[in-house]
Specification:
Strand content: 25-35%
CATH superfamily: Vaccinia Virus protein VP39
CATH topology: Rossmann fold
Radius of gyration: 13 Å
Number of helices: 4
Shape: globular
Number of strands: 5
Helix content: 25-40%
Largest sheet: 5 strands, parallel
CATH architecture: 3-Layer(aba) Sandwich
Distance between the termini: 13 Å
Strand order of the largest sheet: 3-2-1-4-5
């Protein structure tokens, strides 16, 4: 699972909870703002999900390429004007027949 635009970690907690029931998956959350990552990490820690969620700092247009495995679910929660660009980048790593949410 990949989340693009992690903000305060609200979605990471919900999706991380789902990951806790499926041992084979984890959530990778890409966020550009270091302050938001700090807050999100605290929230995820308080929810007891640190083993389920990984935060990757930086611009998703650059950091998305560092994820080596294909993903089965993408939560696209970045600025709307980036959606088309992000969809083009996601196409190479997105597993066929899987889910995209925005």
């Amino acid at each position: 699972m990949v989340e693009i635009g992690g903000a305060y970690g609200y979605s990471a907690i919900w999706h991380g909870t789902c990951c806790a029931y499926h041992w084979w998956t984890r959530l990778t959350s890409l966020e550009i703002d270091p302050k938001l990552i700090e807050i999100a990490q605290q929230n995820v820690e308080e929810a007891g999900l640190v083993d389920m969620v990984e935060f990757v700092p930086g611009d998703a247009r650059e950091t998305l390429g560092t994820i080596k495995t294909p993903f089965d679910f993408v939560l696209l929660d970045c600025r709307e004007w980036l959606y088309v660009e992000m969809l083009d980048m996601l196409a190479a790593k997105f597993m066929a027949g899987r889910y995209l949410s925005g």
